[in-house]
Amino acid sequence: MKIIPLFLLPLFVGFLFPIKTTELVHQPAITAVPDTKTIITGADQTAAYLPYLKGKRIGMVVNQTSIIGTKPSVDSLKSLGVNIVAIFGPEHGFRGNASNGAKVDDSVDAKTGIPVISLYGKNKKPSREQLAQIDLMIFDIQDVGCRFYTYINTLNYIMEACAEHDKELLILDRPNPNGYIVDGPILKKHLYSGIGIHPIPITHGMTIGEFAQMINGEGWGLPANKKCTLRIIKVANYNHDMAYTLPVLPSPNLNTQQSIMLYPSVCWFEGTIISQGRGTYMPFTVLGAPALKGKYSFSFRPVSIKGMSETPLHQDKDCYGLDLRKYDVNLLRKSRKLNLQWLMELYKAYPDKARFFDTSQSNQIGNFDFRSGTEDLRKQIIAGTSEKEIRQSWEPGLSAYKQMRKKYLLYK
Hints:
This protein is α/β, with parallel strands linked by helices. 27% of the residues lie in helices and 12% in strands. Helix 6 (151-164) crosses helix 7 (208-218).
């Protein structure tokens, strides 16, 4: 769906018809745009929140996906006179150019001169001292709807810090490109890690604003008997069934719309001997390994690529397997399910099955288990369990989550 930003609309409208603070306090989700058939992100609805920022010291949790119109939201809001005193950068950094998993240090943004505090290095959440200079925190990051995509973890840490230090959080909501699918096993608590800290399925089917409401409602990671004070600028004209093409790539290795749509069904291969195309310019759209030579004709060769994957699996080796670049992702939309067939197929084809799953971490709990959220799926694939039986094993947890999710939805 085509996106028409509202950044160029006259901003004085918001000042002529301001939203009263008392109204905002009792209305957690706000939409202040005319009815149209075009998806309009929360950030693009400047008239709905710009008056509320006036006179406040603002902190912003943002990355390269945080835009108003076509410009970075930090740059745009600063040019409009908003007093931004700190930027908090998540994984991949504020400008989105750090490699996957790379440590990101504190710095000063060269363009705006605003201090940038890393949330993907020595600290995961802002400190008391860092929040002392802030009156209001803004969270504006594009999510892709997967448990192991770390920005929902960042959201939780921000909410925890804001709740601890009585700071309000304003969320500029954005669509979830995989919002139509709620599927996968529920993450077991003993498998919580940096790629999953919530008891949710692999695809959660929520926007960042909705997920924040769930964190508050369920009390996940928050101080005892405290919630984060939230204000949410809703996406206009959006529901979870809508197709949504991201205007900005969400991370270096999700560099096409195809990769974004395949990501939920492909990322768990990172816990296996199978390359997902890191070290190529087509990550998360190809799957393969050197040992599959002779079983598949398609091949690719991972290499070191600065800013994407500098030490990829099977570096400088030809990998043979599946080319999913032309796979019809509408099949995923129609089924509303993760694709298990690729995992089952490549395990069956791999000659040395003892090496297929990575179990190099302590207590023989491999990376695959952290990604899938359970040891059961790995064991089921090894045992040759049918897809029907695998999906049945995700119950009743998956159905219970879907029922809980309904309480927090802002969109149909």
